[in-house]
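not sure who needs this but someone in the group chat was asking about Ring-cleaving dioxygenase from Cohnella terricola so here u go. i didnt clean anything up, its just raw.
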Amino acid sequence: MSQRTTGIHHVTAFVRHAQATVDFYSGVLGLRLVKKTINFDAPEVYHLYFGNDAGSPGTVITFFPWPTSRKGRIGGGQVGITTYAVPTGSLDFWKARFEIFGIATTEISRFSERFLQLEDPDGLRIELAEREAGRASNWTFGGVPTDKAIKGFGGAVLFSSAPERTASVLQNVMGLEKIAEEGGFARYLASGDLGNVIDVNIDPMEPGHGGAGTVHHIAWRAADDEDHARWRSLVEENGFQPTPFIDRQYFNAIYFREEGGILFEIATDPPGFAHDEPAETMGEKLMLPDWFEPHRAQIEQGLPPIEVRVLKEDME
């Protein structure tokens, strides 16, 4: 197969409260807020991006915090669980850290790996797994030292309403390889070292519905614009209807919905998050695309104030 994605580019989800999201993903998980911008289709809503020190593809989770959002229900047609990779030997550190913050966790085993599962303040399901692969993050914040810091995505658990069709897309379009089947899940592997392990339910799941606490879409990596064009052609050749190319400022995107109900995006690695502000200060200033800049004062007035802050549990 000529086209093989290296893995996840980013994951985007709905939440309700911006500050609670910042406190959890930066204050508790120690991720860097790498971009503070707005939903280009609804400028009254933030679009917040959290990742490693550089906001590298394969590390970034993004959020639309919408205070009046309905509560979603996780189910078929969604990313059910977002998996983070942490350094080998660090899972006990994270278990103890979550206990300090009063966050309930569950330990499970899947494909002979140990996972620590929990929920964010809106009920979004995440899990941590120790992985050797992937560059260590150089970002430290609060009580999370660099040798324990989240590297990026380990992968994801996809909840499909038609798992055989989802599996076909993963293998025959996205270029993942099926490597195992066990305990009601099939495991697929992409060619990269982060965001590369994808588990899919074997039996169909009842559909979920979108809202706070659910993932809106999962994005896969394209190397550049030329590679992106090849991806769009391949998606179309396989009977799907991809969107036109969309400029998201920090990557270009196409979208299509696979037959298990999950919204897939394919996003380019460049230009990245440092192209419109210094890498050293990413995430500190509200960044707006040129067409919204004349309305900055009005937009800023309508957004709730947020700050990346060390939480009291890390100051005791």
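also The chain has a mean pLDDT of 97. if thats useful
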